[in-house]
Design goal:
single chain, alpha/beta, Rossmann fold, DNA polymerase, domain 1, 2 domains, 5-stranded parallel sheet, elongated, binds S-adenosylmethionine
């Protein structure tokens, strides 16, 4: 790693179009993949963890990769073409793991791994509207087969439910006020873009771009953006991330062979 790439990493950022796997060494040390084992990476993303697993299970091992994002899955599949293990890829939600194993004619697997949330590639793509960082349509779907976007959800969620979600999913301290601003605005005009939602959150918190930037400058470790928790909440709701996780935890015991292991990373960094 050198030059521009090194500088980006030092700032906690990633090169465009890629994702750095978190806790890779720890995941391998804890889950202990062995030669010849069957590993399911439920959240393929850029494939950083998959490559790590592949090296450990060798050419007799088998890798099954899932991602609900069809576009990123295709790219990962091309990148991972050279890994030695037998491999297959599925454009599926990990809540459908039982179906995937059945389709692969496997009676179970040795390792189930999931690295929850979104990849840097998804966050950096303004057209997805996942992050407050660049303006774009308030889409937020990781899977284009889903029919409800972030904008749709903001129009239909009752205030109480939105407020409760902001609190329960992201510990947003101003949950009531933000929900009120969103619902009141939605009655007048649809909220369809990232910048509209950012502005509403700033209003609800009594901030402007200028006062927020000043506040951020004076915070020792750089405060997170006032809209970060709202964006995270909406994304979790649009993609039913909690529903999928609940289902995965329910089915995992029957998907694992004797001696099987499961590892789940929950790294919710507001983006
Ligand atoms: C944090 S990234 C994974 C990064 C990956 N471990 C790597 O090293 O590149 C999460 C990925 O999981 C996918 N994802 C999130 N929830 C999912 C679910 N319920 N089922 C399948 N894929 C999911 C996202 O589309 C995204 O590509």
């Amino acid at each position: 790693m050198r030059g521009a790439s090194h500088k980006l990493r030092a700032k906690g950022k990633t090169d465009p179009g890629m994702h750095v796997p978190v806790l890779l060494e720890e995941v391998l040390a804890i889950l202990k993949p062995q030669l010849g084992e069957i590993v399911v990476d439920c959240t393929l993303g850029y494939g950083g963890h998959t490559v790590g697993f592949a090296k450990k299970i060798g050419s007799d091992g088998r890798l099954v990769g899932l991602d609900m994002d069809g576009g990123e899955l295709e790219k990962a599949q091309r990148r991972l073409g050279k890994i030695a293990a037998k491999k297959s890829f599925h454009h599926k939600n990990f809540s459908q793991l039982t179906e995937v194993l059945k389709a692969e004619q496997l009676d179970g697997c040795d390792i189930i791994f999931a690295d929850l949330g979104v990849s840097s590639m998804q966050v950096d793509n303004a057209a997805r509207g996942i992050s407050y960082k660049s303006d774009g349509p308030l889409d937020m779907r990781m899977d284009k087969r889903l029919t409800t976007t972030g904008a749709d959800l903001l129009m239909s969620l009752p205030k109480e439910e939105l407020s409760k979600s902001l609190w329960e999913l992201s510990d947003e301290p101003d949950h009531d006020r933000i929900a009120e601003w969103i619902v009141n605005q939605g009655r007048v005009n649809a909220i369809t873009t990232v910048s509209q939602l950012v502005q509403l959150v700033l209003n609800a918190k009594g901030l402007t771009e200028r006062t927020w930037k000043k506040k951020q400058k004076n915070t020792k470790f750089g405060a997170s953006h006032p809209a970060a928790r709202t964006f995270q909440t909406l994304r979790i709701l649009v993609n039913d991330e909690m529903g999928s996780l609940k289902k995965l935890l329910e089915i995992a015991p029957v998907c694992l062979r004797k001696g099987g292991r499961i590892g789940i990373i929950s790294f919710y960094k507001s983006c």
